[in-house]
Amino acid sequence: MTDAKPALSHRRVRILVVDDEEHVRSGIRRSLTLMGYHAEAAASGEEALRMLERDSFDVMLLDIRMPGMDGVEVMRRARRLHSDLLILVLTGYASLESAIAAVKCHAADYLLKPASIHTIAEAVAGALGRRAEEARRRGRAWQREGGGWERPSADERVLCVGPVVLNLELRLAVVTWGEDEVLQAELSPSEAALLAHLMRHPRSVLSCRALARQALGYDLTEAEAREIVRPHICRLRRKIEPDPAHPRLIRTVVGRGYRFVVVPL
């Protein structure tokens, strides 16, 4: 057993274990649960993708070689669903092809079976730790770039712009549209990063490529960036806009990108 702890103290880290071998996935899931993580399991790539469509996870432990849809294809589709998902590859059949696919899908680690639960726990904790440090660096950069639009806050992890209050640590957005209309939404890491970046640059038009690079840390072409950014913007609008079909906060500038509009309180 290991003394590795979940890296996020304010909530339980959500981990999806994907492996076609029942004893492997149940053993890993049970061990991670005992360590304090919220762990769920899927017996196939298809089941994993259905779970990812319904819910968000912080980490996915993924077996590469499975019947039906293989792990490489699962990685590709999972990355399109959740660009911020930490993927840890588990394989008993290491190959150059799977290693290259893992790199292309920005896998956080590549573990060879049989991997002990101690090794897996260390890999999970390491990946979460690296993400937390990256978020801290990004948060400091946001502070350096900040203009005069947000209301001062004693907690630098909280952004206040117009009717939106965003707690970066809790990834919680509260939008006040009137005395009787207050929306509260828990955001995914990518949704929070995108919203924070837009709030840091109110009224500026930001391309999908700029948002992917500056908010999410991906250096992509504009076409590639659109595939990642657009679904997140769509989900953001459903969470913080009273009428997502006619957004007031996050406006589309046709052919150019998105703009955060400061709506009067």
How would the blueprint of this fold be written?
Elements: E1 14-18, H1 22-34, E2 38-42, H2 45-54, E3 59-63, H3 71-81, E4 86-91, H4 96-104, E5 109-112, H5 117-145, E6 158-161, E7 164-167, E8 172-178, E9 181-186, H6 189-200, E10 205-206, H7 208-216, H8 222-240, E11 250-253, E12 257-260
Parallel strand pairs: 1-2, 1-3, 3-4, 4-5
Antiparallel strand pairs: 6-7, 7-8, 8-9, 10-12, 11-12
* Integer tally of domains: 2
Largest sheet: 5 strands, parallel
Shape: elongated
Which spans have pLDDT < 50 for at least 5 consecutive residues? 5-10, 140-156
**Beta-strand level of the residues, as a percent range?**
15-25%
**What is the rounded distance between the termini?**
52 Å
CATH class of the largest domain: Alpha Beta
Tell me the CATH superfamily of the largest domain: Response regulator
Number of helices: 8
The averaged pLDDT comes out at 80
Task: Give the ordered list of helices and strands.
Answer: EHEHEHEHEHEEEEHEHHEE
Instruction: Please state the second-level CATH architecture of the largest domain.
Output: 3-Layer(aba) Sandwich
Give me the CATH fold name of the largest domain.
Rossmann fold
